[in-house]
Amino acid sequence: MDLNAYTEGQILLIDKPLTWTSFDVVKKLRYALKVKKIGHAGTLDPLATGLLLIGTGKFTKKLNELQGLDKTYEGIITIGKTTPSYDLETEFDSEADVSHLTMEDLQAAALKLTGPIDQVPPAHSAVKVNGERAYKKARKNIEVKLDPRSITIHEFQLLKVEGADVHFHISCSKGTYIRSIARDFGEILGVGGHLSSLRRTSIGEYQVSDAEDLEAFVAKVRDYETD
């Protein structure tokens, strides 16, 4: 391992741990690698895991380009319960019976969310409203109105259904909020829904199967420094 190479510039594939923010990962790697120029290509929510692309040195200039690549996700939408954040960051605020829904109903809802669509981002997101992050207003119970954005869902595949838990695979364009997909999926079904699990599996040609565990990578850096 050549630590100078990270100062010059590298692209790192990291498997982001659960509850960590993307900035937490960048901060830890900045300290471990002792680099000044470092950033990531596309935020993952704290309650999501999976592929995070990290650029150091001269490769920080490529981050905007990498952020624009298509992405794939796997996760679970739990139908019948909603939360203000559309995931498990906030408490449940509604509940509905889902026993009448069939697999055909679920497939039809997924089809309606496939292709080019206009999507409203979650109020609990990092989108800026009048210079302030939307989630800061939402956490103060201040109403946040966000404009819809044009995105494309290339594929919305239902993998299996276990009770109210709908396991899915999604391939999508830049700017897609999977939490909003969960909200819209539940609304189409008439019972509400929230995102209860999410893992990013790829960004463009980069795969999470090639990513390094964060703590294992940092330990490897420490071991190199003490050799």
Automatic annotation (TrEMBL):
UniProt keyword annotation of tRNA processing present: yes
Pseudouridine synthase II N-terminal domain location: 31-178
GO molecular function, one term: tRNA pseudouridine(55) synthase activity
Domain tRNA pseudouridylate synthase B C-terminal span(s) in chain numbering: 179-219
Domain of life, source organism: Bacteria
Entry EC number(s): 5.4.99.25
Keyword list, A-Z: Isomerase, tRNA processing
Active site residues of this protein: 45 (nucleophile)
Pfam families assigned: TruB_C_2, TruB_N
Gene3D superfamilies on file: Pseudouridine synthase (3.30.2350.10)
Catalytic activity: uridine(55) in tRNA = pseudouridine(55) in tRNA
Function: Responsible for synthesis of pseudouridine from uracil-55 in the psi GC loop of transfer RNAs.
Family: Belongs to the pseudouridine synthase TruB family. Type 1 subfamily.
Protein name: tRNA pseudouridine synthase B
